[in-house]
Fold this sequence. Notes:
Elements: E1 2-6, E2 14-17, E3 27-37, H1 39-43, E4 56-57, E5 62-69, E6 81-84, E7 87-88, H2 94-97, E8 108-109, E9 121-125, E10 129-131, H3 138-141, H4 144-158, E11 166-170, H5 176-185, E12 189-194, H6 197-205, E13 208-212, H7 218-225, E14 231-236, H8 241-249, E15 251-259, H9 271-277, E16 280-283, H10 289-300, E17 308-313, H11 317-326, E18 332-336
Helix pairs in contact: 4-5, 4-10
Amino acid sequence: MRTVAVRQYGGTLEVMDRPVPRPGPGEVLVRVGASGLCSTDLHLLSGRQPLGELPRVLGHELAGDVAELGRGVAGWKTGDRVTAAMDVTCGRCRHCRAGQTQRCPTMQRIGFERDGGHAEYVTVPAANLVALPAAISYEGAAILPDAVACMYHSLICQGGLRAGQRVLILGVGGLGIHGVQIAHLAGAQILATSRRPERLALAERYGATGVDTASQSLEEAVAEFAHGEGVDIVVDNIGTRASVRQGLGLLRPGGKFLVVAYLDETFEIPSIPLFKTEQQIIGCRGSTRQDLIDVVRLAERGELTPVIGARYPLDQIREATARLESGELVGRIVLTRPSDAAH
Ligand SMILES: [Zn+2]
Ligand SMILES: [Zn+2]
């Protein structure tokens, strides 16, 4: 079967033929209808995060239908439309028991430490499957597990966002544009930043006030937006020392700074302001299966729209990668499969 895999660190993403995997006990084989291409897929090429044995098939976001059941799988049948939560967790540690599977210390992730969905077929534990209603296309569903569910997890679960709060979303790329939609659904007022007018235009369509940081002062915009108080929540989708410093300065006392991105190795936190203001700096890692179930429900009802910026067949991974690196996309890239034409 065709896959997109890391053959060696420091190389490029390329199409590789690999054998179709067989589902082990408790697993199902999914025939992939579409998979989401994430900038993390490019970071994984560097080798900074070990992927185990190479080659490794990437793709942590996928949708498709069940093609085969492994031994002991109940509750699913071939042909069921599905997507999958990306973390394969132990189910026994204190974090798993508490439903905080994103903290499981022994997790293996689909498309990281185990083969992922940039393929014609992938095996996933049945415990990770989420049923996909007919109202959601494979392409739309293929960006729910990360680009959408991660923002849901950050804002709703980690940030505890409530109606009427003021949220500043730094960066409205593939994740941030869905963060805008989720914050809007939650009843928040939203200020969103970008240096790209077309991204800001879409963020405004979904209920945000846009700030073009290439030409406008964010400090002035926040002062007006929050009437001099600072915002309740900052979502940092940029993850640089500069974005952390700036974001903390725009947060009200007691406000929450949500760390979603980690471009720089370390951040600098001014200690006295942190002490005085009791601001909270909160890590936000991925999403749980329940987060994915929740966003599937929102997408099914049309309350949330997965924003797809471009579609490429799996075979055109080079073109897709170049487009992703260009940074001029609005929304996410989806890798399509020929069989998805009918859906
Ligand atoms: Zn990702
Ligand atoms: Zn666990």
